[in-house]
Amino acid sequence: MSRPQEIPLRIDYLEAVLTAVAVDQPDPAVSDVALVCHPHPLHEGSMNNKVVTTLVRMARDLGLPALRFNFRGVGASALVWDEGRGEVDDAELAAAELRRRYPNARLWLMGFSFGGYIAAKLSERQSVAGLVLIAPAASRFDMTAVQSQVPTLVAFNRDDDVVTPVSMQAWVDAQHTPPSCVIDEVGGHFYHGRLGPLKRAVQAWLEAQRR
């Protein structure tokens, strides 16, 4: 049986990597795929961030093709930072590539920090199966108008020193349909020493949603 590979892609102006079994044509048999959005481009965020790659490995272990990409102006992606507006367009372009490759698959949007904000915003434009938001940047970008319409998991740590835990909890509390939450005491914003438990928690939630 073929094993998943890391396949470098160029999606228009975006640099991306698809973690999947290599195929030569669209695969209608795949049931679920994941798109993973990285943290803030102006603060060294990229698709190689360790939380992003942990989410990719989690998806791979469940048999889901997973696409990560660099937002505009990061790595080999063209264009420049657009304060979160154009970055939603970037994610939508990446999502379209996944839908082209896997035309029958349900799309799970995932993101860390700024990427969590982008994933939540994209869910307002796209029909998606669910959201996984890791330490979403609720105190740095305006998420107050975003209402999740799909199953959602929010994870953060109470000692986060980048995004205020109060802002993330407030967003959770404002949702009409309460998200599932994984809230730990320690690990900071970047889940130092806590990536293993995070991966297992997200994997368990996603497995339950797919049943």
From TrEMBL:
Recorded hits in Pfam families, A to Z, give: Hydrolase_4
- Keyword Oxidoreductase assigned to the entry: answer is no
**What PANTHER family does the entry give?**
AB HYDROLASE-1 DOMAIN-CONTAINING PROTEIN, ALPHA/BETA-HYDROLASES SUPERFAMILY PROTEIN
Keyword terms of this UniProt record: Hydrolase
Query: What is the name of the protein in this document?
Result: Alpha/beta hydrolase
Q: Where in this chain does the record put each Serine aminopeptidase S33 domain?
A: 63-139
Q: What InterPro entries does the database record attribute to this sequence?
A: AB_hydrolase_fold, Hydrolase_4
